[in-house]
Amino acid sequence: MTAERIRVGIIGANVDYGWGVRAHIPAIQALPEFELVAVCTTRMETAEETARQFDVPLAFDDHRELVSRPDIDLVLVCVRVASHQLLVTAALEAGKHVFCEWPLAVSTEQAVAMRDLADAQGVRHMVGLQARGAPAINRMRELIEGGYVGEVLATTMRSSGGGLGRRPSTLSWTLDNTLGGTGLTISGGHSLDLLRYCLGEFEQVSGTVARSIDSATLTDTGETVEVTAPDNVLVSGRLTSGAVASIHIKSVPAHGTGFHFEVHGTEGAIVATSDSGVQGADVTLLGARNDEPTLAELPLESGDRWVPAETPAGPPLNVAQLFRRLAERIRDGAPADPDFGNAVILHRLLDAIQSASDSGERQTL
After folding, report:
1. Which letter does DSSP use for residue 269 in this model?
2. Which terminus of the chain is less hemmed in, N or C, by CB atoms within 10 Å?
3. Which residues contact 350 (CB under 8 A, 6 or more apart)?
4. CA torsion 277→279→172→106, rounded to 10°?
5. What mean pLDDT comes out for the span 331-347?
C-alpha cells in the first residue's frame, strides 16, 4: 500500500447479491488511484467470503469498526436506502470521504442533514447517479452544449422496465413506499437526473405518480406481499431554458423496452437509447442536423471515457467513471459532481412531482 493511493472500505458488499459486488468492487479494482482494503456486511461469514473472493485484506460485520480505521480514506455505502443516513453519518463523523448510492436518503430532510454534515466536515462526497459517468451521455451533453441541436425546444424521455408484480426477496423492500427505493426515486431519480445533467433544471412540473398493482410475488419463495410503492411516474414540465419536457417512467410485467431520451432543437435532434435502465447499461447515441435526411449513430470521442480500457463493461463502467472523478476531487479539494448538494436538488424535484400528483396542481421549483 502506498500513500498515493486512496484506501477504500465498502459497506454492503455481500458476495451473493447487490450493487456493491456487481459494480463497485470491479470498478474500484480497475482504477489505479484506489486500493480496496476493507469490506463490511451484517454477517461476518458473508464479509469474509467477499474478502476472500476479491482478495480484500479486512472484513467486518460492524460498520463502526470499518469507519474508525485510520487506514481507510473513503467509505462506499452500498446498502438499502433506509440505512443510508446511519452509515453515511458514521463515516462523515469519522472524517472519511463518502460515496453513497442513490437515493441518498429516505427523505429530503435526511438528505439535507447529510449534505450539511458532509460540508461541515470538509470532506469530499458523491452520490451514485452514475448515468453521469456514461460515455455516450457525456458525449450527448457536450454536443448539446456545443450547439449540435441549436436552441433546445422540447425533450421526451421514457424508461420501461420489466418485472412488475414479481421480485426476488432481496428486493422486496422496493415494494414498500416508506423505505425510499421506489419507481419514483430509483428509476425516476436516475432518469430525471440524466435529463437535468444534459438540459438543466426544471422550472415547473405537473405529475402523476401511480401504483398499478396491490400485491406482488416473491420469485424465490412464492410468497405474496403487499405493494405500496408506485410503478408509474408521468411528468410534464418546463425547464429553466424554456424547453418543454415529457417523461414516463414505468414498470411492466414483462418485455420492458428500455430507455429512450430524445432532444429536439432549432438545428437538429439527438437521441440516446438503451435496452435497460440507463444508469448501468450501454447507451447508443443517434443524431442528425436539419439538413441530414435520417438519424445516424454518433461516434464517441476519446475524452468521453475516463477509465482504463480493461474496466469491465456494464454496471462497473459508469460507476468507475464517477470514481475517477471523485479521486480527482479528493486530490485537488474541489467539490465533487454529483455531490450530496446535487442529491438534495433531485430529492426536492421528486417531492415536487409527488406534490403535483397528490394535489393535481402544477408545482413551481
Report:
1. E
2. N
3. 184, 185, 188, 189, 192
4. -130
5. 97
Q: Which residue has the cell 470491479?
A: 26
Which uninterrupted H or E stretch holds 215? Answer: strand 215-218
Which grid coordinates are listed for 70?
A: 485510520
Please report, to the nearest 10 degrees, the dihedral formed by the alpha carbons of residues 264, 265, 266, 268 taken in order: -60
For the chain, the domains span 6-129+316-338, 132-304+346-364
* CA gap 118, 112 in Å, rounded: 10
pLDDT of residue 120: 98
Distance CA 273, CA 198 (A): 14
Q: Is the pTM of this model over 0.70?
A: yes
Nearest CA to 207 out of 361, 61, 342, 21 is that of: 361
Residue 93, amino acid: E
Residue 316's SS3 state is helix
Mean pLDDT of the region 193-211: 98
Q: Rounded to the nearest 10 degrees, what angle do helices 108-121 and 340-359 cross at?
A: 170
Tell me the pLDDT tens digit for each residue of 123-148.
999 999 999 999 999 999 999 999 99
DSSP β-bridge partners for residue 159:
249, 259
Dist. CA 66–CA 320, nearest whole Å: 22
Summarised one tens digit per residue, pLDDT across range 32-48 is 999 999 999 999 999 99
Q: Which strands make up the sheet holding 58-60, listed edge to edge?
A: 58-60, 34-40, 6-11, 74-77, 97-101, 125-128
Question: Does domain 6-129+316-338 sit in CATH 1.10.150.390?
Answer: no
| Phi, psi for 292 (deg, rounded to 5) | -105, 140
Q: Which of 133, 148, 139, 134 is nearest to 283 (CA)?
A: 134
CATH superfamily of 132-304+346-364: Dihydrodipicolinate Reductase; domain 2 (3.30.360.10)
